[in-house]
Design goal:
Largest sheet: 2 strands, antiparallel
CATH architecture: 2-Layer Sandwich
Number of domains: 1
Strand content: 15-25%
Number of helices: 3
Radius of gyration: 14 Å
Shape: globular
Helix content: 10-25%
Number of strands: 6
Strand order of the largest sheet: 1-6
Structural class: alpha+beta
Order of helices and strands: HEEHEEHEE
Length: 94
């Protein structure tokens, strides 16, 4: 049996994206690389990256688990909330 990749696993879920309101706001100017790397490593969906001196985040694939909010300790994440209903992630088992 072939091992499923992260993309394979996330591919069975459905995401209804609120294109006008991000439910997570990051401080793109935050520059403590240790804190940023902790956030990048913790996100189970792999949505954070650090490019050209700023934090990049793609909320469209968010699993709404809250890991980033906890790991950030209010440093990188400016605000976090669940998407407005009925938007957000819809979990499915392949």
């Amino acid at each position: 049996m072939a091992k499923m990749t992260l993309d394979d696993k996330l591919g069975v879920d459905r995401f209804k994206v609120d294109e006008h309101n991000a439910h997570i706001i990051v401080d793109e100017t935050y520059n403590n690389i240790d804190e940023i790397n902790r956030l990048i490593m913790a996100c189970p969906a792999g949505l954070y990256s650090y490019n050209d001196g700023k934090v990049d985040f793609n909320y469209e694939g968010c699993l709404e688990c809250g890991t980033c909010r906890v790991v950030s300790l209010g440093k990188v994440i400016k605000s976090w909330s669940y998407p407005r209903g009925p938007l957000g992630v819809e979990y499915h088992h392949g």
